[in-house]
């Protein structure tokens, strides 16, 4: 008889693919976070040797920023391609931070802006709030429902309102 392969208790199928996806995401996040801090001294002032002009330094730092952004986008493109090829779903937290149109890592205030929108009858329905995340690179929009407490079903609301009305009617009689 051939020996049957047994899975270890803590083994994960497709571990190398998950590791690759995790590495690509972390590398893209690192490039995205270092993009803003490039060209600055730890106290936040720009580096300026005496022989360099401010315009030349700005042009150099902007080209470095665009190169890092392009590398970050390439890593996220590879991440999406490898997950599609292996038919592995990305976690919702990871998907929420990647623009599905241009594969840019969505960093609030840097590469994206977000705001809450409510298009229901002048914003009267609080459960209809939607978080809009706008990519600054391609102007693409992602919409996520804001988790508001759900409204109870109508029969339950009617029963509760009747009980409240009965209680309010009986309360003044007891006070006198």
Automatic annotation (TrEMBL):
Domain of life: Eukaryota
Basic and acidic residues bias spans: 156-167
Native species: Monosporascus ibericus
Protein's recorded name: Uncharacterized protein
Entry keyword annotation includes Metal-binding: yes
Protein family according to the UniProt entry: Belongs to the eukaryotic/archaeal RNase P protein component 4 family.
One annotated GO biological process: tRNA processing
Pfam families registered for this protein in UniProt: Rpr2 (PF04032)
Record field: transmembrane: none
An annotated GO cellular component: nucleolar ribonuclease P complex
Biased composition (Polar residues): 58-70
Entry keyword set: Metal-binding, tRNA processing, Zinc
Region (Disordered), start-end ranges: 33-70, 148-176
Transit peptide found in the keyword field: no
GO molecular function: metal ion binding
């Amino acid at each position: 008889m051939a020996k049957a392969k047994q899975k270890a208790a803590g083994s994960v199928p497709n571990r190398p693919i998950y590791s690759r996806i995790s590495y690509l995401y972390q590398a893209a996040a690192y490039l995205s976070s270092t993009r803003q801090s490039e060209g600055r001294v730890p106290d936040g002032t720009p580096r300026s040797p005496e022989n360099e002009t401010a315009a030349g330094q700005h042009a150099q730092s902007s080209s470095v920023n665009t190169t890092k952004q392009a590398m970050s986008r390439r890593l996220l493109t590879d991440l999406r391609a490898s997950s599609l090829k292996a038919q592995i779903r990305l976690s919702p937290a990871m998907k929420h931070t990647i623009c599905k149109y241009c594969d840019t890592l969505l960093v609030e205030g840097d590469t994206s802006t977000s705001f809450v929108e409510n298009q229901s009858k002048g914003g009267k329905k609080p459960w209809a709030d939607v978080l809009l995340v706008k990519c600054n690179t391609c102007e693409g929009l992602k919409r996520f429902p804001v988790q508001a407490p759900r409204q109870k079903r109508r029969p339950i609301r009617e029963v509760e309102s009747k009980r409240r009305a009965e209680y309010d009617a009986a309360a003044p009689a007891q006070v006198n």
